[in-house]
Amino acid sequence: MGTLTPQGCIMGFGGSAGCALIENGLAGAKGVAVSPDGRSVYVGSYNDDAIVRFVRDTTTGALVPQGCVMDTGGGAVCAQTENGLNGAYGVAVSPDGRSVYIGSNLEDAIVRFDRTTTTGALTPMGCVMDTGGAAGCAQTANGLDGADHVAVSPDSMSVYVASSSDNAIVRFDRELLSAPANTTLPSISGTAQVGQQLVCSQGTWGSDPTTFTYQWRRDGQAIAGATSQIHTLTADDAGKTLTCEVTATNPAGSTSVTSQGVVVATSSSTPTSPGTGPVNPADMTAPVITSLKITSKFAPSSKATPVEVTTSKKKKKKKVKRGASIRYTLSENARVVLLIQRKKRGYKIKKKGKKKRSCVSNTKKNRRKLRSQIRSKYKKKKLTRKRLKREIRKAKCTLYKNRGTLTRSGIEGKNKVSFSGRIGKRRLARASYRLTATAIDPSGNVSKSKRRSFKIVKATKKKAKKK
Description:
With 467 residues, this protein is mostly beta strands. It has 2 helices and 39 strands.
């Protein structure tokens, strides 16, 4: 019982361990942790200043490398960077599987990552450094000099760091995730008339929901198949009261709320839309967004950006040093949906059963598939390294991944939205993004979309004034 049988190893580049597999970021491997679900393994590497992620086969225990996150300015050739990882050491995964923590011995810091529970992927969420440290963390705490090992309590409420240089243990309270809480009910807009469309907003929520689902109801009964955000009214809806049930979900649970009802007009009555009074059924003109502007580069501020605001009154506010302004001009009063998407590099590869190539995400699996397809293309010709690089460059494409939406009630003329670089409380990572604005008037007419690009960058520190 407990006897060990070697099953191979994975070593860093330049290593001499004689392992069959090689992966970036493993030089000076010091700490290792396994996720509670057994599907991920994380390694902290002192020399490479990095944390390396592996997917674990829950049947055999075999590991598949999935990349790494290195210290800003590090040389481990990782796809992601984060402050505070110099001298990465001990690793810990929270029992709820939502967070990964790593202590950094040379940077005197603890770094936090959000963990995607389905894939094990890591998203850097900042760090806490020793008082007077130089890691560039937003928070400081005493006792972190020489931070080595990290542990999370079984109830997920506390995190502890042991620091060798300070001869100390530091305690942190850990925020627990709760099920989504609704703060503003969903609302229905559009023309309540057979043949027209109604749009259900998601409302405003706390506790960072990750997904939303929709269910339209007719006189309280669920309408079969009506599970999208937009519902086209049929003859069965005439004279009935329609509501929209929105369910918000995060790893802690789900919460459902229902909008106010809308009475669908019969052929002899005038349709109404909640909050707008009678709607002119002859209004078939879509609103027009004549301009859309956003600051091209900015750093996120600490303030949350409300996901949905139902008023268009302008209030005087103090200038925000960080964040940006979104400006647009409308031809009429309309609800504006601002979609924010992250720009990512991808590759065009052929999928089974399809003639055209599809743009897929930049993963090791897809890169191997691309190289395989290029080799099959050059069966009769010699595939030189130069040709391979040229084919890979030609296959590059751009993907846009949805990060969230902001909804605002716009007025005719110029409008301004303060954007902190956060969707709700969730901060956008440093990257390139695309903003898409679409307007929907009270009659349900939808405008043509306008797009603008912007970047989230690292905040510049203020220089101390010379005395």
